[in-house]
Specification:
The structure is a single chain. It is built from eleven helices and eight strands. By secondary structure, it is α+β, with helices and mostly antiparallel strands. β6 and β7 form a beta hairpin.
């Protein structure tokens, strides 16, 4: 059996980022063979990952990258088990790496992204490697790509909630401040859609069903049910679709009116809101 020197341990630490004792054990088990030692460390990560598979990863951070011209953006949510790990620099560095790789490769899906290389390893392997070091379940829970006229990011609550807002009707203006205001609105009010036209049909059907049941329970005549239910649906749109909501920073205006006051015709094309908790 070869002698494992402190220099060898440090070399493996530099190569893998694994802890000193893990590196020493891996080198000892591999009889000084660095390639075997790296494989041992990766297998340890896979074992830890398998053992944590049934755990809940309800902490984490949202990572966003936007192009300089604000026309393209990616949002990635990386989850872990504890807030302590979420604040760890290695966890944060991994999240930034995943977002940077997503932006550079333009991966179409989360699965495709995780199979992209970041250096010698795929992102999946990078995640497994860090799982082996920290002993917690890690997973990418959201991956969103967005293109538009002007995309503005908003990150809230210690990076636990992220919003991307795509604005249209920009007309060459800098709409960053307006985008952040709308991002704050989305973070606070959690609208279901941009407007009534973009609400999912299943949501509309459910709201009408609930409304009709309430109306009948109140003893209203059956011939009035449909009309009253439609009125309740309009109220739902006002409270739950973004452009019709009362603007949180000025309750004398709706979000639509606020945007129009910033620049005539300015409105929201789409948005995404992601929370890790």
């Amino acid at each position: 059996m070869s002698t494992i020197s402190a220099q060898d341990v440090n070399k493996l630490r530099t190569m893998t980022g694994a802890g000193m004792m893990d590196c020493k054990k891996a080198l000892t088990e591999a009889d000084g063979d660095f390639e075997k030692a790296i494989e041992i460390l990766r297998k340890k990560g896979q074992k830890v990952s398998a053992s944590r598979s049934d755990k809940e990863a309800k902490e984490g951070s949202v990572f966003i990258k936007v192009s300089d011209d604000k026309k393209e953006a990616v949002l990635v949510a990386l989850n872990c088990e504890t807030d302590f790990v979420a604040k760890n620099e290695e966890f944060q560095a991994l999240g930034r790496l995943i977002a940077d790789t997503a932006f550079a490769t333009k991966a179409a899906t989360k699965e495709a992204l995780l199979n992209e290389k970041a250096g010698a390893l795929t992102l999946n392997e990078k995640i497994t490697e860090l799982v082996g070091k920290i002993g917690e379940k890690l997973e990418v829970t959201e991956y969103i790509r967005m293109n538009g006229e002007a995309i503005v990011p908003y990150i809230h609550a210690g990076s636990k909630l992220g919003v991307l807002v795509s604005l249209k009707g920009v007309n060459g203006k800098d709409v960053t401040e307006a985008g952040k205001d709308v991002g704050m609105q989305i973070a606070a009010m959690n609208p279901v859609a941009v407007d009534e036209k973009s609400v999912d049909k299943s949501v509309i059907e459910k709201e009408l069903e609930i409304a009709k049941a309430q109306i009948l329970a109140e003893g209203k005549p059956e011939n009035m049910v449909e009309k009253i239910a439609q009125g309740k649906l309009q109220k739902f749109y006002k409270e739950n679709t973004l452009v019709h909501q009362i603007f949180v920073k000025d309750n004398s205006k709706t979000v639509a009116q606020y945007l129009d006051s910033v620049s005539k015709g300015l409105t929201v094309a789409e948005f995404k809101r992601v929370s890790v908790s």
